[in-house]
Design goal:
About 7% of the residues have low confidence. Strands 6-5-7 form a 3-stranded antiparallel sheet. It has a two-stranded parallel ribbon with strand order 1-4. It has a two-stranded antiparallel sheet with strand order 2-3. The protein has 178 residues and is of the alpha+beta class. The chain contains 7 helices and 7 strands. It binds zinc ion (2 copies). The site of one zinc ion (ZN) has 7 residues, from helix 4. This is GIY-YIG domain-containing protein. It comes from Holothuria leucospilota.
């Protein structure tokens, strides 16, 4: 406890367990970095402009459904080099969302996206013939990285974000994941 803090308390030993909730939560939060010891939550850029994926990546710790407005926190640390990822593509032009999964690195999957954009050979690729502004967000890391688990997690996020067509860009029974 700092001296300045102690000075503000009229009677330190008596009030120590009766701190106002906001002050108490501040103190608890201040300790977290020392005790969590694990990954920093959220989706992060790790490269500068020469990484095409990092350029499109949105740094965030939460995602929002464009159709329902519901917000969801994310709990894993994800970069363009993370393997086994469920990700979100937000179309910023028409506010439609696409949830996908990949077993490989997110940046390799995003190379595939850019190919789809060029060839218009998938629902996602076709969509970005008319729209052009998007952001990419790594939403959840699938730790065991099995296809079955990735697809289950992908489906969970599709339902959470309500991203099935026509509201969103996911098409039932048609995945365009690697
Ligand atoms: Zn990168
Ligand atoms: Zn669009």
């Amino acid at each position: 406890m700092s001296d300045t803090f102690r000075d503000k308390l009229p009677n330190p030993p008596a009030v120590i367990f009766r701190q106002p909730p906001n002050l108490r939560s501040l103190l608890v939060r201040a300790k977290l970095p020392n005790h969590s010891g694990g990954e920093i939550k959220g989706c992060f850029k790790t490269h500068s402009a020469q990484c095409v994926t990092c350029t499109s990546l949105k740094e965030t710790k939460w995602v929002r459904s464009f159709s329902t407005g519901q917000k969801f926190n994310t709990f894993h640390s994800i970069t363009c080099c993370t393997q086994g990822v469920v990700y979100l593509v937000n179309c910023l032009d028409c506010k439609k969302q696409y949830v996908g999964e990949t077993g490989g690195e997110l940046r390799i999957r995003h190379r595939g996206h850019r190919q789809e954009f060029r060839k218009a050979n998938t629902p996602l690729g076709k969509h970005f013939q008319s729209c052009s502004n998007f952001e990419l967000i790594g939403v959840e890391k699938v730790h065991n990285n099995s296809k079955t688990t990735r697809e289950a997690v992908e489906l969970k996020w599709i339902y959470r974000l309500n991203s099935f067509a026509p509201v969103g860009l996911n098409v039932k029974d048609a995945t365009c994941s690697l």
